[in-house]
Amino acid sequence: MATLSEVAAEAGVSPTAVSRYLNHRIELPQATRDRIDAAIAKLDYRPNLLARRLSTGKSEAIALVTPDIANPFFAELAAAVERQAHASGYSVYITSTGGHADAEINAIRRMADSHVDGLIMTTNRVDDGSLAGLLAGRENVVLLDEDIAGVTVPRVFVDNAEGSYRATRHLIEMGHRSIALIGGPHRLLSVGERLAGFSRAMGEASLTIRPGWVLLGEYTRDYGAAATHVLLDAAEPPTAILACSDYIAIGVMQGVREHGLSIPKDISLVGFDDMAFAALVDPPLTTIRQPVAAMGELAVRHLLSLLDGHVPPAETRLPVELMIRQSVAPPFKQG
Amino acid sequence: MATLSEVAAEAGVSPTAVSRYLNHRIELPQATRDRIDAAIAKLDYRPNLLARRLSTGKSEAIALVTPDIANPFFAELAAAVERQAHASGYSVYITSTGGHADAEINAIRRMADSHVDGLIMTTNRVDDGSLAGLLAGRENVVLLDEDIAGVTVPRVFVDNAEGSYRATRHLIEMGHRSIALIGGPHRLLSVGERLAGFSRAMGEASLTIRPGWVLLGEYTRDYGAAATHVLLDAAEPPTAILACSDYIAIGVMQGVREHGLSIPKDISLVGFDDMAFAALVDPPLTTIRQPVAAMGELAVRHLLSLLDGHVPPAETRLPVELMIRQSVAPPFKQG
DNA sequence: TTGGCTATGTAAAGCGCTTTACCAACGATA
DNA sequence: TATCGTTGGTAAAGCGCTTTACATAGCCAA
C-alpha cells in the first residue's frame, strides 16, 4: 500500500499539500492537481482510514449493536440502518450480542471507545443499570426499539400501546370477549406498553381481563407454545389470543395445533411485528406491522444529527398498522 | 479517555513499561505491576484500538461481506460467524452490499484496506472479473457459500449437487416422473451444481428433463411465482417442482395457489436451504437443509488458520440433509 | 521603493500506541 | 578484579495521517 508521503514524493510536493488537497482544504493550480492525481493513480493510493481516524478522531462510521442478527426483526432493522447510513456516507459496523449483558457491554465498549462516531443500540433485555451507566451522558447514542431505563439519549420506538389497542379492538369487533395476552419479559418497555394498550381496549369495551390470562415471559416461540398450553388447559379457555410478537404467535399456533384445535376456527390469534414469515404461515397471521425500515432510517438520521451537534427529539414514536390476514374469525359458538 | 502515557505517569513508570506489561512482553516485579494496575483502574484506562492497530498493523477483527443481511440465510450465517470469531477473540464487522457489484467492491476495499485482518466473503452474483481481480493473491480471504470464478482463496461450500440429487430422488421415489426445476441465476456455482444433481437423479431413473422445465432466473420469491405460472400454464404441467431455494419455493406456493391448485395434492414441492420459515409455511416445506452454523464456523476457522500462516483446504464441502415435511405427496392421478 | 496582499505552498507536531534499541545496577562467575 | 548475565526498566522512532503555524514569491497600490 502506497502512503501519502510516497504520493507526495512522486508528485513533487509535500505530504501536507496532498492531504489538504484530498480533503479540499486548499486550492491548488491545475498543474499541481494533475501531478497529484497522476501520482495517486500511478501508485494506486488509497488513504489509510485507521491513520485518518486516529488523527482526526472521526471515523465516518457508526455501530449497530443488536441482540441477535439471526432474528429477522433485527436483521431487517440492520439492513435499514445500513441503507440509510450509507446514503449519508457512513459505514456501519453491526455486532450481535446474543442478548448477554456482558456481550452488550463489551460491544458498546469496543465500538464506542475507539472506532465509531456513534452507536445505535437495540436490546431486548431488562437492564440492571450497567448499560444505563455505560450510556449515561453520551452524546452519540440513540436507542432503537426498546428502552433502557434511566438513559437520556434520543429514542426511537413504535407506538406499542396503539398497536395492541388496535389488535385488541379488532378481536373485540370480531365478537371476542374472552381474550388472553401472551407477552415478552415483564418490565420491558414494549411489553408494558402493549399490555397497556390491551387493557385500554378491554376497558373501553367493559371487558374484564381475567387473572391468569396475561402471561408474560419471553419473546420466543417456545414461550408462546408453553403459555398457550397453560391457557388451553384451563377450564374455560379464551377464544382469542393476542401474542406480543410474531415469534410468540408461531408458538401459539404450534400449541393450538398440539391441542387438536385450529386457528382461526377455535382460537383467533393476532401477532405483533409482521415479520416476513407472518404472511407465509398457516393460516396467514393477522398481526401488527412495525415500520422497520422507517425505524432504522430514523435512528440513523437522529444519530447523525446528534453528531452534527443538533438535538433530535428525545423520543419518537412511529405508527403501527394492523395487517388483517386470516388468523382471526368470530368466536366459535359453544352453546 | 485516559491514555497509556497518563497511566504511566500515574504509576511512575515509562509508557513503554506499561505497554509491554499489558502485552505480556515484560516481567515486572509485583510492586510495579500493582502500581500500574492501580493506575489503570483509577483512570479507567482502556487502550485505544485504533492506535494499536495503526501501530501493529493487526486488528484482531475480521469482516463478513454479505449480500443482504435481511435475508435469513445470510443472517444466520452471520450469527454463526460471529459466534465462532468471538470464541477466538476476534471481532466481526458485518457489511451488507445489497448485492451490488460496486458496493461489494467498496466493502472489500474498506474492510481489507485498513481495518481487518481477514475477510469472509459471501456473494450471490455472478462476478464479471472485478471481484476476482480484487481478491487475487490475497492470503486473508475465504469464500463462503458461493464461488467467485478465478479466485484461489479457500472456499467453503455445501454439497449442492448431492442436495438436489437427494431432493430429486425423494420426488422420484414418491412416484413423480414429471419434475421441473426452478433455479437461481444461470452460471452461479450453486445453480449449476444443483442442476447437475437434478440431472443425475433424473438420468439414473431414466427420466428425461423436458426442455422448458428447467427455469433459471433468480433466488427470489417473485421469480419462483413467475416461473410457476410458466410451468402451470403449459399444456402438460409437471407434477413436482424442485425449487433451488426456499425463497423460490415460497413463490412456487404462491403461484400454485394462484392457479387454484394445492400443494401437495396437485403439485409436489421441494425447497432448498431450510430457512427458519420453511417449517412454518403451509404446508410445511420439504427441503434440503444447509448446515448454516457449521458453514460459518468453518469459514472462520479456515480464515484464522490462514492468518496463522497455515494452509486450510482449498475447498471444503459440507453435507446437506433432506428434511421431509409435507409438501411432497404421490402425484395426482389424472386418468 | 516599500508595504501588504494573495496564491501556493511547507515544516513540524501530534493522534496513542508498539517496538527496537539501549542502559544501569546488581549479583554471580572466572 | 574484570566480566558477564539478569533484572528492571527507558528513550526515541515510527505507524500514516491531519493540522496549525509559518514561509516565499509575485504582484499591486501608495
From TrEMBL, chains A, B:
One of its GO terms (molecular function) is transcription cis-regulatory region binding. It comes from the Bacteria. InterPro entries: HTH_LacI, LacI/GalR-like_sensor, Lambda_DNA-bd_dom_sf, Peripla_BP_I. It holds the Pfam family Peripla_BP_3. SMART domains: HTH_LACI. SUPFAM superfamilies: lambda repressor-like DNA-binding domains, Periplasmic binding protein-like I. Residues 2-56 form the HTH lacI-type domain. Coiled coil: none annotated. Keywords: DNA-binding, Repressor, Transcription, Transcription regulation. This is HTH lacI-type domain-containing protein. It comes from Devosia soli.
